[in-house]
Amino acid sequence: MADLSSLYKKTGGFMKGICHPSSDREGLLEAGLTWVRRDIPFPFDAEGNETPGFASYRKGCEYYAEKGIYTIGITPYPRDFIASGIDVRTAEGLEKAAEVCEKMARALKSSVKCWQITNELYVEHFRAPITASESVEFIIACSNGIRKGDPDGCIGHNSCNNEWREKYCRYIEERIGGSDYVGIDCYAGTWGAGGIETYDEEINLFYEQFGLPVVLMEFGFSSAGRCVPDDKPEIQKFFEEHGFADRADAEARLDEFVKVLPEGLQRNVERCADEDKARYALGCFTHVLKYWRHDAGIGHTEEGQAEFYSRLLPKLLAHPHLAGAILYCWQDSVGCFTCGQDDCPCETAWGICRLDESRKPAYYAVKEAFAAL
Fold first, then answer.
1. N or C, which terminus of the chain has less Cβ within 10 Å?
2. Which CATH class for the 5-226+294-371 domain?
3. Domain edges within the chain
4. Cα–Cα distance, 13 to 8 (Å, whole number)
């Protein structure tokens, strides 16, 4: 069993949270949600003054804290530093990034009770425009900066999947002197294979690998979308309808293939590091064809989403290695933030509330489960 006591001294206990929260503090609390996970805007301008976005973020943290709701702060992405003139692909840029994170941590440590070092850098368009190996050095630099600025804070990252855990994450742990938690994102039955039973397997795997308390930094279930477990025929049909013989032909003529993708995906490919472009472009058919490849045995409906939480949450709350569960997410969205299409299920129907913030059945399933803890 994981020793959760050290982490709980920093978090106050099990973290029941949600991504992209509402300003409706009473609604959050009614559902048993006492943590919010929010991206931190780039904090300082060229003169070292707080940016308006950062000042607003800090006030937002204080707003939630007034009601006993604590913040998980996600540090800025590599692209944010580069846009601000700090090239994190260089040793000088990494040193500057650490300094920015140190100063940022000092400014927020009274209201941000847990730090997540950027987000899912194993995903090509999140790390764009830097490479995987450059991303590792970026995580190290930011982690060390946050630790220096907030030595008593709870610090970890969620860039740990099956590909990275052996290849990169042990090295990261050595270079930062150890995280407080290992953050994982699990979307079994939508983005990933498996279903409700997969969560125990994933948590145990990462605990055994690192010996750290595990925090589910993102998990959830979309209430929309069709399941296509065998997507090869539909993908092949798409290639042929757009003038490509097959996947190999599309990769060989990558520039031409990118032009037939939705505009949002085209922009993402353009931002990626050169070595990531083909893998990303040929890996986004879930958005292109608007489907889920994996079937969890639960329908992608509002009722199915509620069933997912009703069945999964009690298992998570009883898990001996799990120190937090952060749902994705509070509210449905008008369009997919990845591809830009308003009818793409990939990023539009994850909320436990609808677009107008009326409660879905999932809201009440979460409320019932979290009330028991």
1. N
2. alpha beta
3. 5-226+294-371, 232-289
4. 5
pLDDT in tens, the chain (373 residues): 778 999 999 999 999 999 999 999 999 999 999 999 999 999 999 999 999 999 999 999 999 999 999 999 999 999 999 999 999 999 999 999 999 999 999 999 999 999 999 999 999 999 999 999 999 999 999 999 999 999 999 999 999 998 998 899 999 999 999 999 999 999 999 999 999 999 999 999 999 999 999 999 999 999 999 999 999 999 999 999 999 999 999 999 999 999 999 999 999 999 999 999 999 999 999 999 999 999 999 999 999 999 999 999 999 999 999 999 999 999 999 999 999 999 999 999 999 999 999 999 999 999 999 987 7
- What own/partner pairs with CB < 8 Å and gap ≥ 24 does 246-255 have? 247/282, 250/281, 250/282, 251/278, 251/282, 254/278, 254/281
Q: How far is CA 193 from the centre of its chain?
A: 18
Give the strand pairing for 112-116 and 154-156: parallel
Sign of CA dihedral 279, 270, 43, 29: negative
168/121 Cα distance (integer angstroms): 11
Three-state SS letters, the chain: CCCCHHHHHHHCCCEEEEECCCCCHHHHHHCCCCEEEEECCCCECCCCCECHHHHHHHHHHHHHHCCCCEEEEECCCHHHHHHCCCCCCCHHHHHHHHHHHHHHHHHHCCCEEEEECCCCCCCHHHHCCCCHHHHHHHHHHHHHHHHHHCCCCEEECCCCCHHHHHHHHHHHHHHHCCCCCEEEEECECCCECCCCCHHHHHHHHHHHHHCCCEEEEEECCCCCCCECCCCHHHHHHHHHHCCCCCHHHHHHCHHHHHCCCCHHHHHHHHHCCHHHHHHHHCCCHHHHHCCECCCCCCCCCHHHHHHHHHHHHHHHHCCCCEEEEEECCCECCCCCCCCCCCCCCCCCCCCCECCCCCECHHHHHHHHHHHCC
